[in-house]
Amino acid sequence: MELLLIRHAKPFRLSDPAGADPDLMPEGEDQAKLLAKAMAAGRYGQVDAVVSSPMRRAAQTASVTAAALSHEISFDDRLVELDHGWTTYGVVHTYTDRATLLTDMNAGRLGDNSFDLDEFRSRVVDGIESLIVDDERTVAVVCHGGVINAYLSHIIGAERMFFTEPFYTSVSRVIALPGGYRQVMSLNETDHLR
């Protein structure tokens, strides 16, 4: 089967003492529409199911694609981003140096926040692996940049979990075959945004 790991579209940056869970910006809404149009036109083959993180930015992105494909969305809490429950969204944008950002994230910190690398990766891998069945289906998984890094670094056996910065609505393809065989077919496809 094939997994299409899709980062959500561009959201607002915000702070909220109750937990920052932003909606998509107008630019993000446009990105989500372009992704959905490409999916409906077959750019990524026949998509048989749409699964999403329940966080707003992912759910809103998934809803546009699911509507274009006439699918329901399945939500999985294991696909939430590492910043779930934090009071600020957009900490990554305060970094001016990508190397420092990746170094901090690989040390389990982001700005003033911290997270458990092993727990995060374990949760993500369990969530994504639970979607895999031995058939020819293609599943679109709308999630987050950290989630994509956690799963892909697991597949390739990378020493560091965070190694790429997926673009908004980018698609990374993984082939999952019986016996636990996984192959990364592409990373960060954004042709649909052109």
Automatic annotation (TrEMBL):
<dbReference type="GO" id="GO:0005737">
    <property type="term" value="C:cytoplasm"/>
</dbReference>
<protein>
    <submittedName>
        <fullName>Phosphoglycerate mutase family protein</fullName>
    </submittedName>
</protein>
<dbReference type="Pfam" id="PF00300">
    <property type="entry name" value="His_Phos_1"/>
</dbReference>
<dbReference type="InterPro" id="IPR029033">
    <property type="entry name" value="His_PPase_superfam"/>
</dbReference>
<dbReference type="InterPro" id="IPR050275">
    <property type="entry name" value="PGM_Phosphatase"/>
</dbReference>
<dbReference type="GO" id="GO:0016791">
    <property type="term" value="F:phosphatase activity"/>
</dbReference>
<dbReference type="InterPro" id="IPR013078">
    <property type="entry name" value="His_Pase_superF_clade-1"/>
</dbReference>
